Automatic annotation (TrEMBL):
Record PANTHER family: 3-PHENYLPROPIONATE-DIHYDRODIOL_CINNAMIC ACID-DIHYDRODIOL DEHYDROGENASE, DEHYDROGENASE/REDUCTASE (SDR FAMILY) MEMBER 4
Family per similarity comment: Belongs to the short-chain dehydrogenases/reductases (SDR) family.
Coiled coil: none
Designated name of the protein: 3-oxoacyl-ACP reductase
Organism: Minwuia thermotolerans
Length: 250
C-alpha cells in the first residue's frame, strides 16, 4: 500500500528504543525524515545509526520531556532540522506504578503533560505545513482497571479522552489525532524484558493471558502508528486502537 509518507517530516518523542524506535524506523522505511529525542546520548547514537540506514534525514537530541522549556526548544529545533513538521508521535512513559506522590507525578509529568505541551509546540508547525497528524501512545491499561499501576492506568485513560478532544478541535486545521493502546510489548531493557528476568511468575501469567501465547513486538505497534499518520488513513480521527493480540479479550 502506498502510504504517501516519503519526504514527510516526523517527530517521535522517546524514540531511542522500544516502541518509539520501532515507530521511528517504520516512518524512515517509508521515506519520512525523522527526529527522535531521549534522555541518553548513547541510546540516541545507536538509534541514529539504525535510522540513517534508510537514507533519510535524521535528527536526534537529548531531551527530558518532563522539562517544559527543553521540550518546546526540542520541538522547534527538530522541525527546523527536518525542514518542517507533518507528524508528531507522543511516545514516552514515566510508568508511574505506585499509588503515591511519586507514581502520580511521574505519570502526569511524562505521560500526560509532556504530550499536551509537545502538542502546543508542534500544532502550529504542522498547521503551517498544511496539516498532518498526531499519534499518541496510550495503553490498554487506560481501557480497563489497572490495580498494579493505578496512576499509569488513570493517566493513560486521560490520554485517550484528550485524543478525542484534540481530534474535534483540530479537524478545521486539517490535523488528525489518533491514539494507540498497546498491550504487553516486550523489547530489550523494557518492562516485560525485566519481568522475564526478575519476576517470572508475573511474566508467565501475563503471557498466558494473551490468546496468541506471546508478548507483542514494537514493530506491531509501529505498523499501526505509520498507517494512522499516513494518507491511507485520511478519514480516521479521534480513534483509539488496541494493539494487544487479544489480551483484553480475557
Amino acid at each position: 500500500m502506498e502510504l504517501g509518507l516519503k519526504g514527510r517530516n516526523v517527530i517521535v518523542t522517546g524514540g531511542s528504543r522500544g516502541i518509539g524506535l520501532g515507530i521511528a524506523k517504520g516512518f524512515a522505511a517509508e521515506g519520512a525524515n525523522v527526529s527522535i529525542c531521549a534522555r541518553g546520548q548513547e541510546s540516541l547514537d545507536a538509534a541514529r545509526g539504525e535510522l540513517e540506514k534508510a537514507g533519510v534525514t535524521v535528527h536526534t537530541a537529548i531531551c527530558d520531556v518532563a522539562d517544559p522549556e527543553r521540550l518546546e526548544v526540542y520541538i522547534q529545533e527538530a522541525a527546523a532540522a527536518l525542514g518542517g513538521l507533518n507528524v508528531l508521535v507522543n511516545n514516552p512513559s514515566g510508568f508511574g506504578r505506585g499509588d503515591d506522590e511519586e507514581g502520580w507525578k511521574k505519570s502526569i509529568d511524562v505521560d500526560l503533560m509532556a504530550l499536551v505541551r509537545a502538542g502546543w509546540a508542534a500544532i502550529p508547525l504542522i498547521e503551517k505545513s498544511g496539516g498532518g497528524s498526531l499519534v499518541h501512545i496510550s495503553s490498554i491499561s487506560g481501557l480497563q482497571n489497572s490495580t498494579r499501576t493505578p496512576p499509569y492506568g488513570a493517566v493513560k485513560a486521560a490520554v485517550i479522552q484528550y485524543t478525542t478532544t484534540q481530534a474535534a478541535a483540530l479537524a478545521e486545521k486539517n490535523i488528525r489525532v489518533n491514539c494507540i493502546a498497546p498491550g504487553s510489548i516486550e523489547f530489550p531493557g523494557g518492562v516485560w524484558d525485566q519481568a522475564r528476568q526478575h519476576n517470572r511468575p508475573l511474566y508467565d501469567s501475563i503471557q498466558a493471558s494473551i490468546p496468541f501465547g506471546r508478548m507483542g513486538a514494537p514493530e506491531e505497534v509501529a505498523n499501526l502508528a505509520v498507517f494512522l499518520a499516513s494518507d491511507a488513513a485520511s478519514w480516521i480521527t479521534g480513534q483509539t486502537v488496541a494493539v494487544d493480540g487479544g489480551q483484553m479479550l480475557r
